[in-house]
Amino acid sequence: MTLQIILNILIALMWMFLKESYDFLTFFTGYLIGMALLFFLRRFVPDAYYLFRVWKVVSLILLFIKELILSTWNIVILVYKPKLDVEPGIFALPTELKSNWEITLLANLISLTPGTLSVAVSHDYSTIYIHAMDLPDVEEEINDIKNSFEKAIMEVTR
Amino acid sequence: MIEIIISLLLLLGTFFVISGSIGILRFPDIYTRLHAATKAATLGVAGVLLGAFVFLYVENGIISGKLILGIIFILITAPVTGHMISRAAHQTGVRLWKHSIRDELKNDQKKNNA
């Protein structure tokens, strides 16, 4: 991944020297050309093509923004409901993620998703405790988080 | 046209912030209040900053990096504060709302102590 980015920047710099114009626009064109070259030569370069991973990061960010808007909308609806008929509670989410970085990301994402707020992480990092605004079905909630966020994070980090 | 987008962003932002504040006052216990504080306020402030960003760009031609950084920092820090406050509250023994249906964290802690 790092090697490919360095290669891409080198190609862009070479393009600048070939064109003999040293401004940002030429660098950008060179970078695009480098991206295309690396894509066509991806069989000969070690590791998977790095823009696939970049695309996964971008889609994770988009997912994050979508969930943030949805969750705010749900909270706003609850705020203006005349009667508060929810059943809050804390449930345990077993997680397969290992490193500090992944768990931090997952906890942050959970905090900004509809109706959930991470409360604590167990000492062996195997469980995240989550407070949910409305908790009629724990299993469904767990599957929801596992299928959307955990999968997206794993695709980025592994 | 662009004025409509800017005012829409600003109005939506302030609306979310106000809703969050009302939520903090209305909800029954600290955990549900944190829901309002972390989510609605985050998007609200992000909306206002985004509106200011678009306004500065259209009106003065300035691309204000500070506003973008502000949005990113709020997105990163708001869930962390929510997590820390709720964790501290739970560890010092703040009770959940009386209509809450389960508390697995408390059960697990009891199991570990026993």
TrEMBL record, chain A:
GO MF annotation list: antiporter activity; monoatomic cation transmembrane transporter activity
The keyword Nucleus appears for this protein: no
UniProt-annotated location(s): Cell membrane
Gene Ontology cellular component terms for the protein in this record: plasma membrane
Keyword tags: Antiport, Cell membrane, Membrane, Transmembrane, Transmembrane helix, Transport
Bilayer topology term: Multi-pass membrane protein
Pfam families: MNHE
UniProt keyword Secreted, yes or no: no
Residues annotated as transmembrane: 24-45, 57-80
Family: Belongs to the CPA3 antiporters (TC 2.A.63) subunit E family.
Name under which the protein is recorded: Na+/H+ antiporter subunit E
TrEMBL record, chain B:
GO cellular component: membrane
UniProt entry keywords in alphabetical sequence: Antiport, Membrane, Transmembrane, Transmembrane helix, Transport
GO molecular function: sodium:proton antiporter activity
Membrane topology listed for this record: Multi-pass membrane protein
InterPro entries, A to Z: PhaG_MnhG_YufB
Domain of life from the UniProt record: Bacteria
Localization per Swiss-Prot or TrEMBL: Membrane
NCBIfam families: CPA3_mnhG_phaG, PRK12674.1-2
Family in the record: Belongs to the CPA3 antiporters (TC 2.A.63) subunit G family.
PANTHER family, sorted: ANTIPORTER SUBUNIT MNHG2-RELATED (PTHR34703)
Name of protein: Na+/H+ antiporter subunit G
Organism: Filobacillus milosensis
